[in-house]
Design a protein that fits this description.
This protein has helices at 5-8, 20-35, 40-61, 113-120, and strands spanning 11-16, 69-76, 80-86, 123-128, 134-141. By secondary structure, it is of the alpha+beta class. It starts with a helix and ends with a strand. The relative contact order is 0.20.
């Protein structure tokens, strides 16, 4: 598939802190991934990672606040897709998140989001945003 300059132009969206935004973000990423040549399996991986990051941003970061937004940025290159999700919450330190694979956490119903994201993308960075909130950066490379 031949990529055009439109396929490589960054996308920036400001989304509401609601679960409908999770679908919007996933669809935007899936469309861009398809246009730059990711196969169905890779697109599904990206979709799952984006859904998890968006749910975390809406639910845990912004607490569904209608006054807060989630920033979605999608950056394409000839061989990769970079997705940045930034909420407007108070942020958190990754090292404070309990290991979901620890015996005492195996039966918990939450706490596996970061592990899932790590599984589905090639690079994952989670840090406090420059102006607050939590910034999640995910990169997936074309095979």
């Amino acid at each position: 598939m031949s990529k055009t300059s439109a396929d490589l132009r960054p996308i920036h969206e400001l989304l509401a802190s609601d679960l409908a935004s999770v679908d919007i973000a996933e669809e935007s990423v899936m469309q861009r991934a398809e246009r730059i040549g990711f196969d169905e399996d890779a697109r599904m991986d990206l979709g799952l990672a984006v859904r998890e990051a968006m749910v975390n941003a809406v639910v845990h970061g912004n607490n569904y606040s209608p006054k807060k937004k989630v920033e979605l940025s999608i950056h394409s290159s000839m061989d990769s897709l970079r997705v940045v999700i930034l909420d407007q919450g108070s942020g958190f330190e990754v090292k404070t998140v309990p290991d979901p694979l620890d015996d005492q956490n195996l039966m918990k119903t939450s706490g596996r989001g970061l592990l899932m994201m790590q599984t589905y993308v090639d690079e994952l960075s989670v840090k406090k945003g420059a102006k607050g909130g939590t910034e999640v950066v995910m990169v997936k490379y074309l095979p």
